[in-house]
UniProtKB/TrEMBL annotation:
Signal peptide: none annotated. GO terms for biological process: response to oxidative stress. Transmembrane segments: none annotated. The lineage of its organism: Eukaryota, Viridiplantae, Chlorophyta, core chlorophytes, Chlorophyceae. It comes from Chlamydomonas reinhardtii (Chlamydomonas smithii). Keywords: Heme, Iron, Metal-binding, Oxidoreductase, Peroxidase. This is Plant heme peroxidase family profile domain-containing protein. SUPFAM superfamilies: Cupredoxins, Heme-dependent peroxidases.
Length: 1377
C-alpha cells in the first residue's frame, strides 16, 4: 500500500524535482515488487511530468497540448457531451457557464455563504495552476486535458459552494447525480487511516454539521479539496499547521470530501457516520450495504452556523426530559437508547484497552489502534448498567478541586498527557498535532480547553459489581470494571434506569432496551442502524417541498454510481502484484461479456466515458454474473457492489510498464478518472512545535511566625461551645437536635453536641498470644492475633443509640501495641467480615476482589512507619477477604510511634473511617528490656492519642457520602480522641509525654494548649517536640505557640511540664490555619479537641518538688535511627542539590480529568512512578502540589528528612527540621524537598497522598527498589552494597520478597488454622519462620542461620539493631478487649 506519510508545507510547483517520481516508484516497488523496467518507465514519466512546471491557464493548456482521445475508444461509446463548450471569461478565468451559474458567479464576482466578497486572485491562480497537489500527491493537469469535462470538474471542486438554502448551490442541489459509492469508499479508507475521525464524524452527525463552518465558502479560506483530480487520505488527515484543532481538522476533512464529490457537508457527515460503525466493528455492522434498496435519505442542506442550538438534549437532563426530547422528533426511548450506545467510542477512554482495570496501552511502545475507544462494542451498556453507579445533583456551595493546568507542567506530567492524547489518534499526523498542542499549552501560548460544568456528579465504585449479573452482565469479565467513569450524566441516567431506578414509562422502556443490548451485540447493532437512519433524517435541514421531483426523498444504499465510472478492478484481483487477465481486460477496455448486447459498449465502461449511466450499471451486473462464481472468490456482493472510483476499499489501479505488462497497486487516494496517476513529493513530516520556554510555576508562599500565639476567647461558664468558635455560632452550630448546618458544602451531624462530657479512655493493650526465642541468641518473635469484625458502641448519641463500627478485636480504635525494639512480631489478622457477619449492619456491601469464589469485605493492613518487607507492607491489592487470614511479620528495628490501619484499594477511606486503625508503639525502655531512651523519657508517663473527626447521620451512624459532599474530602463536626468525642483527661502536675497521631480521613490539626480560664497560650512555654514519624529528634524543638501542625497520618511526640498547673484546666485546641487548611470547614466545635484537668489522681501526687527521675532532661543530643544510614556529608550534599533545585525525582500531586494524580498518572494507568531506585542509595525527592489543594504525602518503607519548603530552608518549621519522618504536608501551591535513604529492603512499595479520599481516587503510585548497579543514584549507596557476598546473601530474601503479592505470603482461608495462643506445630512453625528464614537478616544478622557474617559488622552494616539486654520468650497473657 502506498501509505500516507506526515508531510510539511508543500513545495511550489516550480520547486518540484524529477526525483520525486523516483520516490513514488520506490514506494510502489515496496508494495508491488515492480520489475526494474517498470520502475524505469515510471521514472521517465516523472521526468517528463516535471518539465515546464509553471502555472498555465486553461486556454494555454489547450493551445500547448490539445486534447487527444485515447486510441482504444470505440465509436459506439462516444465521449460525454462537452459541458464546458461555453465559458465565461472573468477575473476567475474561464469558467463554464453552467458552473458559474451554479456557484453564483456574476460578472466574475463571487460571494461566500456569509455574503462576503471573495478576492478572485487566489482562486484564479488555483484554477489555472498546471500542477495540483493533494498533500504530497500531485498531478500535471495538462496530461488530462483530453477529458472534455476537465474545466467543469476543476471549477466545481476548487470553487465548491456549500449547499445552503440562500445560495444557488443549495437551490439546485440534486443528490441523485452524485457518486455516493465513492463518498462511502473515501470515508471508509479515511477512518481506517485515522479511527478517531470515525468517532468524530458520528458525533458531528448527531449534532448535524457540528463544528463544520461553511461560512467562508466558496473562496480561498473555505478549506475544501486542494486538487480536483486527486484526493489523498493524507490531505484529509494532515493538519494545516503543527498545532491544529482536531474538531476543525475533522470539519475540514468533511468539506474536502464534500467538495471533491460536490455534495453537501451535511450529507457527507451523515453518509460517512453511517460507515464509521462498519470500520470500527471490522465489517460486522453495515448500515450502507452497497446494494439493494436505498435506506439513507440524502439531499441535506448545509447550515452556515454549525451545530444549531438544541440539536441534542443537555448533558444533565433527566431521563424523562431526555425521552421527551427524542419523542418530539419521532424517536422512541428504545431508539434513543440505541443511539447513545455510540458513546462506546467516547475518547475519554483514551488508552484504556478494556481487558482489566490496569490495562492501558502505551503508544510509545505498543500499537494502540485497537483501544476500547476504537471498538464498536456493547461495552457501553455493561458499563452504565453496573450497580456500582450513583448519580447526584451538586448543591450550591460545594467545592470542587481545581484541575492542574497544562501550562508549566513538568516533563513526567506532560508525558502522561501525551500518552493520553496520542492514544486518541491512529495516524502520525494526529499524534504530532496532539503533541504540538500540548507543547504550546505547556508554554502558555495556547489556552487549554475548558470543560463546562454540568452540575451533576457521577460516581463509579466497585461495590456490588457482581450484582450486575441480574441485568445480564457477564460479571466474570466486567468486574472489576474500569476505574474511571467515561461518560455523561445522560448515560448515567440511562444506567440507573437499567438498574431498576424509576417507574415512568420512559424508565421501563430504557430498562428493557439496555438489558437487551447487554445480552446481544447483534440486537444493538440492528437497533442502532435503524435508529441512526431515523435520527439523521429527523435532524437534517431539507429543501422546502415544492412538488418537484428533485426535492422528493432520495434514498441510497451506498453503492450508487450514477455518473457511470469504471468497473471495479477489485472484483478480479484481491492483492497487489501482476495483474490478472480480468484486470488487464478491464483496464485495457477489452472486456467483452460472453453474450450480451453490450459487448462493445462494455469495453470502455472502465474508463468512465459512457454517456448513459444505465449502460455501465448493466455492464457491472454482467461482469459480476460472468466472473464472480468462476474466477475469484473475492468477487462477492460486499466487495463488488457497483462501479466506483479508485478510492474504493480493495480497489486497485492497474498500470503498465514499458513492456506492456500490467501491475496492480493499492492506493491511499481517490482519483477523478481511472487514467489519473499522480506523482509524489518527498515526505516531509509534520514539524514539531518550536521549542518555547515553560513558565515556572509560581509557589504560594506565605509568611508565618510559630511564636505568635493569639489568646482565645473563653466564653462564660455553661456556654456551648465553651471557647469561641471560628466564625458565627449561628452559622456553625445546629440550633437543636434534628437540624443540620453546612459549612463550605459539608454537612454537620443533626445534633447539638456538648463537648467535654465523657472521660478519656486509652485503647486496650494488644496481648501476646505466643512467643518464641531462638535458643542461644537474642532473636525473638512475639505473636498477636487480631480479629476484624463489626461492633456497635454508644458514643454519646441522644437516647444512647449505638453506632456501628468496623473493629480490630472489637476495639475502636484497635488495640494498642507496645513492642520492645529488637523483638520481631507476627501479627495475624483474621477477617471476620463475611456476608453472614455483615448482614444487618451498614457494611453489607461487597467489593472486588471479594466476589465470586471469595466473599465478604476486603481488608489489607499497613503498619505505617515500619520498614517491612514488601509482602508484609499492606500492599493495596494484597486483599484479605472474609473468612481469610494473613500473617504479617514486622521487624521493629527502631523505636518510634507507628500505627496500623487498613490499606485496601479503593476503600481505604471507608475502612479506616469506620474504625480500622490502631496505635503501635516501638519503645526502648530499659526497665522493659531495652537500651533505654534518651533525656530521661523512661521516667515520664506517656499518653498515646489518636485524633480524628467524624459526622453522624440522623440514625447515629457514621455518615459517609462518597458520591456527594465527601467525594473529594471527608470533614466531620465531631473530634474524637481514641474514639471518645471531646474527652476529659485527668493528669498529674508533672512532666507528661504525649504521642499524637492524626488518623482522620482528610482533616489536619493544628494543636495548641491554652489555659481554660484565660485562653492564654501554655504550650509555647511548657512543651517541647521530641520526636516525629521516624522516632527521636537529635535535640528537642520548642513547641510552637501558634500550634503544632499535624497533617493526616503524621505523628509527633511532645513533652509538657504541667507542674505549675495543679488544680487548673487546659484545653487542647485545633487552631484554624487559613494557609495550610485551605477550604477546611470548621464547625461549631471543630476547634475543640479535649480538656485536661491537672489534678492529683486517686493514688496521690508526686512529692513537690518532684524527684530528679521524673524530670525531662535533654542534656546531650540523641541519635535518630536515620542518622545511622545518612551521614552529615550526605545531608549537606542533599541540601546543596535542593538549594539548586537538582532533584533526583519530582512528583507533582494534582488533578487531571476529574482524577487525583501523581505526575499525571494514577495507580491503574501507570502504577510504577520510579522503577530504578537503587537499594540502599539516597535520593532527593521534590514533591509539589499541582493546584490549590493540600496533600499529606506518605512514602512507604523509608524515613526521610525535610530539606526545604518552597525551595527555602527557612520555610521548614523548626519542629520538622531534622525530624525523622515518613509523612510531609504539601501546602496549597507549595513544594517540599526531602532526603530519602532507600533501605533497608528491595521491592515495590507505595507512596501516596494520605488524604484517604484522594488515595482512594487514585492519588497513589509505587516505586521499585532494585539492585544498586544501574540505578539512578548508585554512587550514594551504603558501603555494604560494595560487598558482593553481602548483596548475594541479602538477595536470597529479596529475590523472593521483592513482589508485594508474593504467593507464599498471600492470605489463606481461616478454616483449619490453629489459633496462635494454642500451642501446636503450626504455631511453632509460624513463630520461628522469620528467624529460620532470616527474613530481616539486615537488621538481625547475629545468630540467624545462613547469614553472611559481614552483615554483623556495624561498620559495614548500619542497619543492625542494638539489643542491649538478653531476650526471652514472653509470658502469654489472657486476651483483653
Amino acid at each position: 500500500m502506498l501509505a500516507a506519510t506526515p508531510a510539511g508545507p508543500w513545495r511550489s510547483p516550480g520547486a518540484l524535482q524529477a526525483s520525486a517520481w523516483t520516490v513514488f516508484a520506490g514506494a510502489l516497488q515496496g508494495h508491488t515488487r515492480l520489475p526494474s523496467a517498470r520502475l524505469a518507465s515510471l521514472q521517465a514519466y516523472g521526468a517528463s511530468s516535471t518539465s515546464r512546471l509553471h502555472p498555465l491557464t486553461r486556454a494555454q493548456q489547450q493551445r500547448a497540448d490539445p486534447p487527444q482521445p485515447p486510441s482504444s475508444l470505440l465509436p459506439n461509446c462516444p465521449f460525454r457531451a462537452a459541458v464546458n463548450a461555453q465559458t465565461r471569461t472573468s477575473a476567475l478565468g474561464p469558467i463554464p457557464d453552467a458552473i458559474a451559474a451554479a456557484l453564483g458567479v456574476q460578472d466574475g464576482a463571487l460571494t461566500t455563504a456569509a455574503g462576503a466578497a471573495v478576492d478572485p486572485a487566489p482562486l484564479a491562480a488555483k484554477l489555472s495552476a498546471r500542477i495540483q497537489c493533494s498533500a504530497r500527491l500531485c498531478v500535471d493537469m495538462t496530461k488530462y486535458a483530453w477529458h472534455t469535462d476537465l474545466a467543469d470538474v476543476n471549477a466545481r471542486v476548487l470553487l465548491w459552494s456549500p449547499k445552503v438554502p440562500t445560495m444557488r448551490a443549495g437551490q439546485t442541489y440534486d443528490p441523485r447525480g452524485k457518486d455516493w459509492v465513492s463518498v462511502v469508499a473515501m470515508c471508509r479508507e479515511l477512518f481506517k487511516y485515522e479511527k478517531r475521525l470515525a468517532s468524530f464524524f458520528m458525533r458531528a452527525a448527531f449534532h448535524d454539521s457540528l463544528a463544520v463552518d461553511v461560512s467562508q465558502c466558496p473562496g480561498p479560506n473555505c478549506g475544501g479539496a486542494d486538487a480536483s483530480l486527486v484526493l489523498s487520505l493524507e490531505e484529509m488527515a494532515r493538519p494545516e499547521n503543527a498545532e491544529d484543532n482536531f474538531a476543525e481538522l475533522a470539519g475540514r476533512a468533511a468539506k474536502k470530501i464534500a467538495s471533491f464529490y460536490d455534495v453537501s457537508v451535511a450529507d457527507t457527515l451523515a453518509v460517512c457516520a453511517a460507515v464509521a460503525p462498519e470500520v470500527l466493528s471490522k465489517g460486522r455492522i453495515k448500515i450502507l450495504t452497497g446494494s439493494g434498496k436505498g435506506v439513507l435519505r440524502v439531499g441535506r442542506l448545509d447550515s452556515v452556523v454549525p451545530a444549531p442550538p438544541g440539536n441534542l438534549p443537555a448533558a444533565n437532563t433527566t431521563l424523562e426530559q431526555f425521552a421527551a426530547f427524542w419523542a418530539a422528533r419521532g424517536i422512541s426511548a428504545t431508539e434513543a437508547t440505541a443511539l447513545m450506545g455510540s458513546h462506546a467510542l467516547i475518547d475519554d477512554q483514551a488508552c484504556f484497552q478494556g481487558k482489566g482495570m490496569s490495562d492501558y496501552c502505551n503508544p510509545a511502545t505498543a500499537d494502540c489502534s485497537n483501544v476500547r475507544m476504537f471498538r464498536w462494542e456493547n461495552h457501553y451498556y455493561k458499563d452504565i448498567c453496573s450497580p456500582t453507579l450513583t448519580v447526584r445533583t451538586e448543591k450550591p456551595g460545594e467545592l470542587d478541586p481545581v484541575e492542574t493546568p497544562i501550562v508549566g507542567m513538568t516533563d513526567p506530567e506532560i508525558d502522561a498527557e501525551a500518552r493520553r492524547e496520542t492514544c486518541k489518534f491512529t495516524s502520525k499526523e494526529g499524534r504530532t498535532m496532539a503533541m504540538n498542542r500540548l507543547a504550546l499549552m505547556r508554554c502558555g501560548l495556547m489556552p487549554e480547553p475548558v470543560e463546562p460544568e454540568d452540575g451533576v456528579t457521577v460516581t463509579w465504585t466497585y461495590k456490588n459489581c457482581r450484582d450486575g449479573a441480574a441485568y445480564g452482565i457477564n460479571v466474570a469479565e466486567q468486574c472489576p470494571h474500569a476505574h474511571l467513569w467515561f461518560y455523561t450524566p445522560n448515560d448515567a441516567y440511562l444506567g440507573l434506569a437499567c438498574q431498576g431506578v424509576g417507574t415512568s414509562a420512559a424508565a421501563a422502556e430504557v430498562r428493557s432496551a439496555t438489558r437487551a443490548f447487554i445480552k446481544s451485540q447483534d440486537e444493538w447493532d440492528k437497533a442502532f442502524s435503524s435508529a441512526y437512519i431515523k435520527m439523521v433524517t429527523a435532524f437534517a435541514l431539507w429543501p422546502d417541498a415544492d412538488g418537484s421531483d428533485r426535492k422528493a426523498a432520495y434514498l441510497i444504499n451506498g453503492g450508487e454510481c450514477a455518473t457511470g465510472l469504471h468497473l471495479e478492478a477489485a472484483c478480479a484481483q484481491g492483492a497487489a502484484g501482476p495483474a490478472s487477465a480480468d484486470v488487464r481486460a478491464l483496464h485495457a477496455a477489452t472486456y467483452v461479456p460472453p453474450s450480451s448486447k453490450l459487448r462493445d459498449s462494455c469495453k470502455s465502461c472502465s474508463q468512465g466515458v459512457c454517456p448513459e449511466p444505465k449502460q455501465c450499471e448493466q455492464c457491472v451486473k454482467q461482469f459480476r454474473a460472468d466472473r464472480r462464481p468462476k474466477t475469484n472468490p473475492l468477487v462477492t456482493e460486499a466487495n463488488c457492489c457497483g462501479c466506483a472510483t479508485l478510492s474504493r476499499s480493495l480497489t486497485y489501479n492497474a498500470t503498465k510498464d514499458a513492456n506492456g505488462n500490467t501491475y496492480v497497486i493499492k492506493t491511499d487516494f481517490g482519483v477523478r478518472w481511472p487514467d489519473v496517476m499522480p506523482f509524489v513529493l518527498p515526505p516531509q513530516p509534520l514539524p514539531a512545535a518550536a521549542a518555547c520556554p515553560v513558565p515556572e510555576r509560581q509557589l504560594d508562599t506565605f509568611t508565618f511566625d510559630d511564636n505568635v500565639a493569639p489568646t482565645v476567647t473563653i466564653r462564660p461558664a455553661g456556654s456551648n461551645p465553651p471557647v469561641a468558635p471560628e466564625g458565627d455560632i449561628s452559622d456553625l452550630c445546629p440550633a437543636a437536635d434534628g437540624t443540620i448546618v453546612e459549612v463550605r458544602g459539608y454537612p454537620s451531624s443533626p445534633f447539638r453536641w456538648k463537648p467535654f462530657t465523657q472521660t478519656y479512655v486509652a485503647p486496650p493493650r494488644a496481648q501476646v498470644a505466643a512467643s518464641y526465642a531462638r535458643p542461644g541468641t537474642n532473636l525473638t518473635v512475639d505473636a498477636y492475633e487480631i480479629d476484624i469484625f463489626t461492633t456497635a458502641r454508644n458514643i454519646g448519641c441522644p437516647g444512647g443509640r449505638p453506632t456501628w463500627f468496623l473493629s480490630y478485636n472489637g476495639s475502636v480504635p484497635g488495640p494498642s501495641f507496645r513492642v520492645l525494639k529488637g523483638r520481631q512480631t507476627l501479627v495475624r489478622f483474621n477477617n471476620r467480615l463475611t456476608p453472614a457477619n455483615l448482614s444487618g449492619t451498614p457494611f453489607s456491601l461487597q467489593f472486588d476482589p471479594c466476589e465470586g469464589t471469595r466473599s465478604g469485605r476486603p481488608i489489607t493492613v499497613h503498619l505505617h512507619g515500619s520498614s517491612s518487607l514488601a509482602p508484609y507492607d499492606g500492599w493495596a491489592e494484597d486483599s484479605t477477604c472474609g473468612a481469610e487470614t494473613k500473617d504479617y511479620y514486622y521487624p521493629n528495628w527502631r523505636a518510634g510511634f507507628l500505627w496500623y490501619h487498613d490499606h485496601q484499594l479503593d476503600i481505604t477511606s471507608e475502612n479506616a473511617y469506620f474504625g480500622l486503625s490502631g496505635m503501635y508503639t516501638v519503645h526502648d525502655r530499659a526497665a522493659e528490656g531495652g537500651c533505654g531512651e534518651p533525656w530521661n523519657l523512661d521516667a515520664l508517663p506517656d499518653w498515646d492519642m489518636q485524633f480524628k473527626d467524624g459526622v453522624l447521620d440522623r440514625h447515629c451512624q457514621l455518615y459517609y457520602d462518597r458520591a456527594g459532599p465527601h467525594r473529594n474530602n471527608l470533614y466531620g463536626d465531631i473530634n474524637f480522641v481514641n474514639g471518645i468525642p471531646w474527652p476529659v483527661a485527668t493528669m498529674e502536675p508533672r512532666w507528661q509525654r504525649f504521642r499524637w497521631l492524626v488518623s482522620s480521613v482528610s482533616r489536619p490539626y493544628k494543636l495548641r494548649f491554652v489555659d481554660a480560664a484565660t485562653g492564654a497560650d501554655v504550650g509555647g512555654s511548657k512543651c517541647h517536640v521530641i520526636a516525629g514519624d521516624g522516632g527521636i529528634r537529635r535535640t528537642p524543638a520548642t513547641f510552637p505557640a501558634a500550634g503544632l501542625f499535624v497533617a493526616v497520618a503524621e505523628r509527633y511526640e511532645v513533652v509538657c511540664d504541667f507542674r505549675d498547673f495543679n488544680g487548673r484546666s487546659l484545653y487542647l485546641l485545633n487552631a484554624f490555619d487559613d494557609d495550610r487548611m485551605k477550604d477546611v470547614p470548621f464547625f461549631c466545635n471543630s476547634h475543640l479537641v479535649m480538656k485536661i484537668d491537672v489534678r492529683c489522681n486517686g493514688t496521690g501526687c508526686l512529692a513537690s518538688p518532684p524527684p530528679v527521675n521524673a524530670i525531662f532532661t535533654p542534656l546531650v543530643p540523641a541519635q535518630p535511627a536515620i542518622d545511622r544510614v545518612l551521614s552529615q556529608t550526605d545531608i549537606n550534599a542533599a541540601l546543596t542539590l535542593a538549594r539548586n533545585r537538582q532533584c533526583t525525582r519530582t512528583f507533582r500531586f494534582g488533578r487531571r480529568n476529574g482524577q487525583w494524580v501523581i505526575n499525571g498518572e494514577t495507580w491503574h494507568t501507570v502504577r510504577i512512578a520510579a522503577g530504578d531506585v537503587g537499594h540502599n542509595t539516597w535520593e532527593v525527592w521534590c514533591l509539589e502540589t499541582g493546584g490549590g489543594w493540600f496533600h499529606p504525602i506518605h512514602i512507604h518503607l523509608v524515613d526521610f528528612y525535610v530539606l526545604t519548603r518552597n525551595r527555602e530552608e527557612a520555610q521548614v518549621r523548626e519542629y520538622e527540621r531534622f525530624t525523622p519522618k515518613d509523612m510531609v504536608q504539601l501546602d496549597p501551591g507549595a513544594e517540599v524537598s526531602v532526603l530519602v535513604r532507600f533501605g533497608a529492603h528491595r521491592g515495590e512499595f507505595m507512596f501516596h497522598c494520605h488524604n484517604l479520599m484522594h488515595e482512594d481516587f487514585e492519588m497513589m503510585r509505587s516505586f521499585h527498589v532494585v539492585p544498586t548497579p544501574g540505578s539512578r543514584t548508585a554512587a550514594t549507596a551504603l558501603p555494604l552494597q560494595a560487598q558482593p557476598s553481602i548483596v548475594q546473601n541479602l538477595n536470597v530474601v529479596y529475590d523472593l520478597y521483592d513482589d508485594p503479592v508474593y504467593g507464599p505470603a498471600r492470605p489463606r482461608p481461616s478454616a483449619g488454622l490453629t489459633p496462635l495462643r494454642v500451642p501446636s506445630v503450626q504455631t511453632t512453625a509460624a513463630l520461628s519462620f522469620p528467624i529460620d528464614n532470616a527474613l530481616y537478616r539486615i537488621y538481625y544478622p547475629n545468630g540467624a542461620p545462613n547469614v553472611n557474617p559481614l552483615l554483623a559488622n556495624a561498620a559495614i552494616n548500619p542497619w543492625i539493631v542494638d539489643i542491649c539486654q538478653p531476650q526471652r520468650a514472653q509470658q502469654v497473657q489472657e486476651q483483653q478487649v
